[in-house]
Amino acid sequence: MSKQQTGVPFTAEYRRLKEMLRSMKRVLIAFSGGVDSALLLLVVRQVLSRDNVFAVTATSEVMPRHEEEDALTLAKKFDVEQMIYRIYCA
Q: Which domains does the chain have, with CATH numbers?
């Protein structure tokens, strides 16, 4: 992917992140669907195949439904297998 496709500048830190993730071979991402975890998931998918990336999203009855939907949409867009873990408040 080029800089224009991702919108992410090719800095030394970005290259180092990709190297670190590539060296892990397989990763599980705690994926909220927010900006930070979405960027991490995107970079992981740039360096690892679908079979080596898994996302877990924790939801609860107090989490706005649209946040869960955003996480589902992004994981699907990035072609990442995802598990939704529901937490029930007592």
A: 3-87 (3.40.50.620)
* DSSP for residue 33: S
Q: What pTM value is reported for the model?
A: 0.79
The pair of structure tokens assigned to 46 is 């740039």
Give the Cα separation of 73 and 18 in Å (integer). Answer: 23
Contact 47, 54 (CB under 8 A): no
Nearest to 81 by CA among 22, 35, 8, 31: 31
**Helices within the chain (DSSP H only):** 3-6, 12-24, 35-47, 65-77
**pLDDT, tens digit (0-9, with 9 covering 90-100), for 9-61:** 668 888 899 999 999 999 999 999 999 999 999 999 999 999 999 999 999 98
